[in-house]
Batch of 2 targets.
Target 1
Amino acid sequence: MIAIIENGVGPVAEPAPPEKLKRTVSASRLNCWLQCRLKFYFRYVLKLTKPKTAALHYGSVVHLVLQQWNLTRWRRQPFEIAKLKQVFDTGWLDQGGAIDWDGEEPDQKISAWNVLERYFTDTPIKAGELPEAVEVPVEADLSSHGLPVLIGVLDLVRAGGRIVDFKTAAKTPDADMALHQNGVQLDCYSVLYREATGKRESGRELHHLIKTKVPKVIITPAEPMLEYQRNRLFRLMEDYRDGLDRGNFIPAPGFGCMGCEFMSECKKFDGGRHE
Amino acid sequence: MITLEANYSKKIGLPGYSSHQFSVTLKSELADITQAQAESARLYAVLQSSVDHNIQQVGFLPNGNGNGNGHGHIPPVETDAWKCSDKQRDLILKITDEHKLDKAKVEQLAQDRFGKGVKSLNKLEASGLIEELLEQTGQSKPRNQRFSPPKAGGR
């Protein structure tokens, strides 16, 4: 899934008690939990909201157009680039608040449409290929494992059960690294697909849309989830469950801090426990 | 004295997303445990035959297709239960009812998209159908709100 925040711009909402957060879990939440538990605390427990970033808006609009393209095939409608451009233009205008473009909005908009046009040319998905599913919310009850309900939205399931996730990126990813970094998300989708269909997926694919000056499309295929990958995911979910019980919101200073929207809150954080 | 109790139950789907079920229970006394297997088989045959015979009378149906007096057309029986989750089934029925959607059209939509009827959709397919129905009825939600609790009159 192209990065989607679960909090929009707006006033701070009521904090979510850990009990509530333990009922369900998603790939986004697990990744945030892995990245930095204090970031998780700010984003999901305190529900602090931040203005939408330019990169997030770029990714959201690209995702919106790809969804429409997939739905068009699912509905057996003809491919009409003008209609997709209309979806793109409307989506681009709907920014939901002020975005700091630093004067680059016109160039970013051109770049986003160019990368989509490149995708429509280079995609391995044939015009007549009917998707199995497009942008569907699914959930897997893992209570028999003592785990929360796993929830997620599948971007696309290609005919025959190939799970596809779309990404936008600034540079060409290394295939091994891309699969490693997106492993939690892909494994979550495999668990969701298997639970929803009773079948094993036939494969997984990352479709990277690279927003370089000359746009590129990189397809990274992955095998179906293996047993050890599922076990690893379940151990992570156990850690999530138990960590929430302990209020284990410790920061993880590192490279990830450079792009973190909660830097100012992090610097002031006193540990959260006052005995 | 050994008592053998056997129950046979069957639930079948009816037109308009209705269903009905019937179950019969019998008790039998055995003088010897060695009779259990044969008696169990006999009870099963009797119960199944009895339930199958009686359940064909579908009785009253809200859309007027019923045959309460036991005469007239017996509608074709669909496969038994929904394959999607209970939550999905309830949501499909809720959207259909609240927006007065033509059930035949919803059924046709499922056939067009998935090549099977609404009740036969698995959870993934049912989710796709729900998204489509929500869009058709102007209730489509942004991606990050798909798991929000349903509101009155909406999802």
Target 2
Amino acid sequence: MPVFLVTDVLLWLLVAAAGIYFLYCRRHAHLAAPWRRVLQSRAALASLVVLGAFAAAGLLDSLHFRPQLAGSRLYSSEVLSVLDVALSHLRTNREKTYSAPFATRLYAKEQIETPEGKSIRDYPRLAYGGRDLESESDRPADIALRAAAGLVAALVLSFLLFRVVGGAARRSPDIPWSAAGWTLSLVLAIALPLYVLSFEYHVLGTDKVGQDVLYQALKSVRTALVIGTLATVTMLPFGIAFGIIAGYFRGWVDDVIQYVYTTLNSIPGVLLIAAAVLMMQVYIDGHAESFPTVAQRADFRLLMLCLILGVTSWTGLTRLLRGEALKLSTLDFVQAAHAFAVSDARILARHILPNVAHIVIISLVMDFSGLVLAEAVLSYVGVGVDPATTSFGTMINAARLEMGRDPVVWWSLAAALAFMVLLVLAANLFADAVRDGFDPRVRIGAAPA
Amino acid sequence: MRILLIALAFVAGCGDVWNDPYPASERGSNTFYTAFIERPKHLDPVQSYTEDESTFTQQVYEPPLQYHYLKRPYELVPLTALEVPKPRELEGGRVAYEIHIRPGIRYQPHPALVASNLELPAGKIASLDTPYALPLGTRELTADDYVYEVKRLAHPRLHSPIFGLMAQYIVGLDEYAATLRKADREGEWLDLRRYPLEGVQRVDSHTFRIVLKTRYPQFVYWLAMPFFAPMPWEADRFFAQHGMAEKNLTLDWWPVGTGPYMLTQNNPNARMVLERNPNFRGEPYPREGAPGDREAGLLADAGKTMPFIDRVVFSREKEAIPYWNKFLQGYYDTSGIGSDQFDQAVRVAVEGDATVTPEMAEKGIALSTSVSASTLYIAFNWLDPVVGGQMGGEAAERARKLRQAISIAFDVEEQISIFANGRGLAAQGPLAPGIFGYREGRAGINPVVYAWQNGAPKRRPLEEARRLLAQAGYADGRDAKTGEPLVLYLDTVARGPGDKALFDWYRQQLAKLSIQLEIRTTDWNRFQEKIRKGATQIFRLGWNADYPDPENFLFLLYGPQSRVKSQGENAANYENAEYDALFREVKDMPNSRERQRLIDRMVEIVRRDAPWIWGIHPKDYTLSHVWVSNEKPNTMARNNMKYLRIDAARREVLRREWNEPVVWPLLGIIGLLVLSAVPAFLSYRRRERMAARPASS
Amino acid sequence: MLAYIIRRVLYAIPILIGVNLITFTLFFVVNTPDDMARMQLGTKRVTQEAIDRWKADHGYDKPLLWNARAPGLGKATQTVFFQKSVRLFVLDFGAAEDGRDIAREIRMRMGPSLALAVPVFIFGLAVNVAFAMLLAFFRGSYLDFWGVTLCVAMMSISGLFYIIGGQFVASKLWHLVPISGYAGGLSAAKFVILPVAIGVIASFGPGARLYRTLFLEELSRDYVRTARAKGLRESAVMFRHVLKNAMIPILTGVVVVIPTLFLGSLISESFFGIPGLGSYTIDAIQAQDFAVVRAMVFLGSVLYIGGLLLTDLSYTLVDPRIRFE
């Protein structure tokens, strides 16, 4: 039975909106031009591929359903996603507690009973890690073999890929398709062997309760994507409307809107978020019947967190848009529209809005990485996502304590770091390219004088 | 970069150890270093109730009694009293305790005990940062000071947490509170000496009497808590002067006592310092202890005059990691440990005794353990229609089977091993070990959940739980009538990052029976409110005993203590007529065979009813360095500082050995930075030679 | 000028009222006075009577926003909101819920906060500007490319990692500095050096990159071309002209944060055990101490508004063409 979580719906709506925008841009050369400029950058194209890979994982993780209970028409209350199904071996192969990446034994010694009935102290064998090995000394060979199998698959796919890329390159030679091809090959060359290996090993180790760290890292991607995108998108209509209305109408409307955002802005962000998150918690507790499952409750909290983060970033965008609208409203074409008695609403929609669109797009992509990073900090303060949600913040927070162990349990932190840096780095590089492509100021600055 | 170098040179100039968090002047002094996590909220003896506060208050204040430092089970011994008072029955069911104070005890040096300091000019107060800047005086402890303190329990401006409880017992305390409320004027000192309290009388200068309305054998335990520590009226008067409170000059901030230490520095954000009280009478170290204490060297100082340590420095340490690392580096002398650090420190040896890892043993770190008088449990709300027991008849029987099945499935031993690294004991009932009524071994196991096999309790197999579940009408986790899957709800407080793992684990436990568990997390206030309203199904809670008497545990399941009905401490709202009747009998009984028999019966009732999943009795572990001696965890008494002894010279040597700075990576980084500047410099030279360049490139 | 300042200060008043109203509403929806009383009275043996007494003592026994029973103007003034917020405007913060004086606490904690925040701010600015200038000087070369890449890479790492990693490496492995703690006076240096270094590193990526674009913008101006045409050496152009002019947007941009330095850093202070205002705020959030949170929000807002005012004033100072009517 499919389950529609609110963030799922919003995320897919966002994808649909992006698709429509893409088609619309294709038909309007002046809209497509800046995107073309963006794609001409090798870094942008490469990071777009990486972002795409993350988005694919996140979107697969946003198709939720409740599995049918075995031998019955009833459904379990556990909510799974398509990604969970694809990675069901990671989800269910659970050890007792910590084990290192590729380990076959637990990380800490325990009391074990030998077959002779004696009790000795040793590292217990894992239930799943390397379970098909006949002898543990075969492990390096086994790993190499499996990795090689994955690599071969990646190689074959890459070969096919480059044929496609070759075709695309002939059609639009100004875009560095090979960069995309190489990046995608690299992603495949890393992902496929890991996937193959993950059936037999915990490639990034296991955490305190024996859950696979790779699984957690992949699940965190969706949370990061949701926060990174929805936080700005949900608040976008307000931000845009308030910004251009304030800049266009001026007078008391401007005063009121300025008052609102100065007030919101002057409250230290973390405090505002903390208060709002606590308040939302009260609402959830008071309406427990509206959230029958953990997944729904966690999802609602995630959505509210997005909204609250949106409010804080909303004020920044509004200020930018207000300034721009202020400038635009004095320009000739707007004055001319006034002279022709065009209605205000029409002027706003036809003349002001399209001319501030680039600011909106730039701030959308620029905010993404900041929001992903903010989530981690908020979780540290205790006002982040629901404890039941896997996110980079909760992973880092849990891993923090593990750094005190000796020998150090480093893999959770390392996994969170690697995934997060990759995601944020790609987002940052892409955002840079978008800004360069869209910002008229940068364009003029970059052109030979 | 240059700044970094200068700063490094500065740090290096401080001595050969770079990471010493303490001033160099303190090195080698007879100072004990430890940490505190939560800032104490109250140091006023009538208000302070939490354990972190008692770490400070119990070194300063001296109630009439204390717990024996070494003996187990816990035993009350006199502190300032001459002997442990015996209750004396009066007519009308009243009971009197007469307490004789040891003569010759004197207060710590304190400005309040100098008459001229009681009328300070406003300007003087405004320039004051610590009370110890004023002339200091002392005087002898008298019975009046104890009487004064009991009166303060009813003070309208102090919110004593035990006022409600004491008002039930101490004769006239309720009326006394009403009198004080009427007499209290805003901004004026309320002189409690002017208002007599019927139930607490001074007999002579070193004797006072407390009269209770009814028998209350547990009352003597309260006499070992700072609530009953002496308070000189002068101190109250001194801190009541105008302008004092604004400067944090209050009893809540600067305790005044007769104990071995006095609080001389109070910066609860960073550092609190206790210094030896020069007027302390000098108490001898106990001469006898529990079996094994002599072998452990705990009696080496027997009869010597305490305290041994001159100064105690508490540093605030909010984060676990720095706390633990500083301990390892030798900057804290003892350390309580969390689960994550525990693994590296302690291993459970073959015999089941916990010892430290070889690496730590090499450092000379010793471990001492004790099961604390507390219990962590998971409760079923008795008023709940699914898991509760209020519905009666067959439904109640089914719910009982359900609770029993869940109790079996909940593998507490695994929880202890994963989440507490073995620091705990699976509970067999409400009573914690070391409390009268607790039974060891075969006789003590909970037959509902355990069977006795090969000389150890063994959790009953899951099949048995499944059978019980089927009998309860939920075969395979589905309601036999409707076929709906059984979903249960557990309410809890989400505290930190480690919780997610625990919640996952909880869900797994019930998943073993195909029951789905939904965890509802919330903040502490909301959680309390839900329990108060009975809007919970299953929830987890804990209880730290106030005193080592079974009554303090058994009352947690006493019907009239129901949280929903009477705001009591019975959060599960459990109710059983027989249990309640037995409780009323047991609570006022002295320890005896008969009491044991009745308690056995009570425990049997609740084991069968299973209103709680009997969880964990956590073990307190203390790690201490080789230079610390006389360390023995004592969960009832926190006045442990006077017993401890350190070898400061040894500490100095070891600290130096463990903290040699590693400089080469730093030099490496600097070198790398310099190297990376070379191409920049070359490029700079090249550009300099170019005259004009297009602006754009 | 003076008239302008006065007007701006007056304008701040409705903003501060708004701020107060928002925090007040948010926190009281969460925490009824009953909750606060329970929080302060502990968990054991709490009676309703004790709660009522606590509320009466701390002034929470009135209606929250509107007192229908009070006569006349009292309807608005005899409320928790009015009583609790009016005093803030004269910077009288009152006592925290645990009875301790907030103003004194703020004074005590300001020092440690500044000891951390000011060096981070100054060194951070210096390092970032220096590095940005280096990049601008070598614009278009491989140095520039790798420098920008470094910036982007560094800003992609969460600040938490810098702190966790820095503590682990510098304190645990190398024993270079105390892992946490604080002391007053000069001995503060050994405690703050690591958090300052980490703060500078964390601000390095975004800061240096932003300043680089400012420098580049400046370099594309006409006077630079004139200077070059005059035959000035590149370094002279950079240091004598570009640096001076680029500092205008840089400084006016950072002026806004100067007052908020007082608030300290939430995360660093907690990790490194520095008893500043940042950790005070976190403690207050976690303990749900409304009085402290309200005071800190108010202080934060005042400082922020002060920062805005300073920014505007600094514009007039550096650019004589800007005048306020």
